């Protein structure tokens, strides 16, 4: 599988996107840069994505800093051993505490191979990940984008992406996940780069970052 590993890969993808969809010329011109945002695959990377669910970038960064201070190194074994008091002091909500516990248990039981998943087709990997209680499509898709470097994943449930695409194309209402997923098909096989482009565009139009913390 072709991976998005470098900024050169991003630029190649953007050139292909703009050549295939001329509407993206203006979007590319509006952003100064499109960040790579890659992290090493594994438990810590997935944990950072879970922390970032449904909170602001600033809140996610604060919680992540406390979690890493309480549990270092952050491994499945250490997470479970730290227990609820450390989880609570880190600022994790109860649902996120439980999700990270389910992930930890699945990894230790050999039911979730976070490294091996990086080599699987996206649909197969998403199905495997979402079988773990607490992991939804957004979490699985973001992991595949930023930890596996998958080139053709578009997290259509992301509110910032919905807002950015809606703004870019003059939609009266922000597209929902179903409609955005269908809308983004035109950008295959570079949907992973298109997602990064629109997160960068969101930062321009709203003045704040919204891409997941890694």
From TrEMBL:
GO cellular component: cytoplasm; protein-DNA complex
Gene Ontology molecular function: alkylated DNA binding; DNA-3-methyladenine glycosylase activity; DNA-7-methylguanine glycosylase activity
Ranges that cross the membrane: none
Gene3D superfamilies: 1.10.1670.40, Hypothetical protein, domain 2
Entry keywords, A to Z: DNA damage, DNA repair
UniProt key word DNA damage: yes
Domain HhH-GPD span(s) in chain numbering: 51-203
One of the GO BP terms on file: DNA alkylation repair
This enzyme's EC code(s): 3.2.2.21
Protein's name according to its UniProt entry: DNA-3-methyladenine glycosylase II
Organism in which the protein naturally occurs: Phyllobacterium leguminum
